[in-house]
């Protein structure tokens, strides 16, 4: 861990933590250690502490140190995808008979992992409106071991008061998990607000360029960090060296990207609120958003994700997604390029018929860092 960076500001940590010059050559960027195994000087004589790249790899270590520093945690772990990270976390925290509270708005794949996979192993779950601490408190049972929160949430941009739910979790003796994918650690620091573990899909803002799939866990408990690292190795869904390198590279520009994403999204949300074909805009930066005050308290800015409902119903929402020319129709989010999608038929198809079902007239935007005038004009022509 590059402790000398920890008292620096976020932008400096993003560029320097974990990115120590290569001891062999002085290369200022950590090399891609594309290697599976390491020569031992006699049996058990490890040179740099590395023996096999599932257990540890220097490029992944650089990323994991960087992630821990960015979230203000003591241990960061990098995985092959966000869902691989979530799977490792759930199977570390929970055993059969345990109970977990999950949000009524979350990434569809997260819900699927609970409802279709983890539940088969005898873990029980119930759904709560995490924007309301009383709803979470009511869902807690004497077997609750974890409370899961996603804020801002995907795709309804709901806001959860992390500190308030941390208090509920503490009373219940449960761990608070926060999926920080939409905000990124630049905009929001869940561990400082009382969370026990932060989850990321590194695929999104952290990677930032739509060219890598990855996931992360960060915790401020050394003990839990050890347990998670043990399971990471035992389960094996680790981030590869090249993927780790791509994310490490993306993170260096995270603060400047997030500032621009937030600025562009604020202007687009404002335009949408005035558009006659739009019935509702879901963006925490808007004063009328029910979570606006909490978001303003716990986030540095409001991020690049916007959802909105159209007046013409589901077919109009679907058609609109095909009419944009700068916004690319596609799943995922958080890249420099703007994306548009229909959650009901795309990212959230797996929650159809559940408590997490999303409205058919909903459109989700991942606002990129292009010139905002081009983005505004594109949406205006697509809305007609
Ligand atoms: C909020 C959130 N969490 C987790 C995930 C899962 O991450 P991955 O696709 O990297 O497995 C996603 C993916 O869209 C997401 O949006």
Automatic annotation (TrEMBL):
Its cofactor is pyridoxal 5'-phosphate. GO terms for molecular function: cystathionine gamma-synthase activity. It holds the Pfam family Cys_Met_Meta_PP. PROSITE patterns: CYS_MET_METAB_PP. The keyword Glycoprotein does not apply. Transmembrane segments: none annotated. PANTHER family: CYSTATHIONINE GAMMA-LYASE, TRANS-SULFURATION ENZYME FAMILY MEMBER. NCBIfam families: PRK07811.1 (NF005871). This is Cystathionine gamma-synthase. It comes from Streptomyces noboritoensis. The lineage of its organism: Bacteria, Bacillati, Actinomycetota, Actinomycetes, Kitasatosporales.
